[in-house]
Task: structure prediction
Amino acid sequence: DTGVSQDPRHKITKRGQNVTFRCDPISEHNRLYWYRQTLGQGPEFLTYFQNEAQLEKSRLLSDRFSAERPKGSFSTLEIQRTEQGDSAMYLCAIQGSWANVLTFGAGSRLTVL
Amino acid sequence: KQEVTQIPAALSVPEGENLVLNCSFTDSAIYNLQWFRQDPGKGLTSLLLIQSSQREQTSGRLNASLDKSSGRSTLYIAASQPGDSATYLCAVHPGGNTPLVFGKGTRLSVIA
Result:
């Protein structure tokens, strides 16, 4: 148990379909982050929340991407009209207020055919 | 803009060897630096976090050092084991509300 649960672990979809990923923090935390990681690359920041508020969005987050965090609990990341370039691992991470350590979930792998 | 570089991109060593992974960053004004381990197809596991005021951190066979002025960090793994095989990622926290900036990682293979 890493403190962060992500679902689904793997999603295969056809180009043009919409997909949604969910992140459930288990441990106490202050902030929730979404990162994207493609093969052979390090994670790239997408967006983060402090409680319900979405405080920053990367330029990588095009208008086809939307993230929400209702009631400051779980978070969702939706991708509309998926493209093959969206194929990646989508990682959720939490950061506690007591330390700056990031705790990552196992990730949701997206394959767009 | 902060950039993080990790060298080498891949490394293969025989079991039992001591090894060093390198991380460099372009802007020395950092808040902290974190080393992560990632197994294939999995998420990231935090190994060590070094605050900007610290020079090194140790956990078991792992030792991470930080030279902020030169923009460098090293991760030293003693007596490597096949179970250490993974990708090791370095990430810099620039401070404030700026999110972590990651390197591309070093893929380590320890051969039995």
Q: What stands out?
A: The radius of gyration of chain A is 13 Å. Chain A has a mean pLDDT of 90. Chain A is about 0% helix and 50% strand.
